[in-house]
From TrEMBL:
This is RNA polymerase sigma factor. PROSITE patterns: SIGMA70_ECF (PS01063). Transmembrane segments: none annotated. Belongs to the sigma-70 factor family. ECF subfamily. Keywords: DNA-binding, Sigma factor, Transcription, Transcription regulation.
Amino acid sequence: MDRHHLLTDEACIERVKAGDTEAFGLLVGRYNDRLIRMVMPLVKEKADAEDLVQEVMIKAFEHLGSFHGQCAFSTWLYRIAYNRAVSDMRRKSKYTEIPLEEGVISDEADDEEQESRQTPEALQWALSLLDPGDRTLLSLYYGEGKSVAELCVITDQSASNIKIRLFRLRNKLKKLMSSYEERQ
């Protein structure tokens, strides 16, 4: 295995800043597929996601000098991609928001019974009904394992806002999945 693949993000960044532009290719290799998965709920088409990520990588390369390590490189990169995807989404389409019903979470016994009936099909159906930004937030948190602090940087929202959104989205998914199961 090529020893360059063992370089940390920080080491790659330092090499790029020192003039070794090929080191940026290692970063592209590490994050390209992850970024495509992240933006897919927002742009819908894989080709559009790939184009957007390519533009994000170019922008990141051009602005790498402004990255000073206040957060992880991946968080900085995700923020660029998230902002670009949201901007594209707003420019290209309007979506219909599903009204969020306020309510109290059911007790644990109800939750366990409900979860045992939920299927991957119900989850996919429920996710398809969510706003693309909400799907992306869930994907970053659960799929990519981003912390609330990282989501704050990526989305430019407060920690309390992120926590509230995640709480409401979990409840909304439970309700949507229940309605899917009832329809079956």
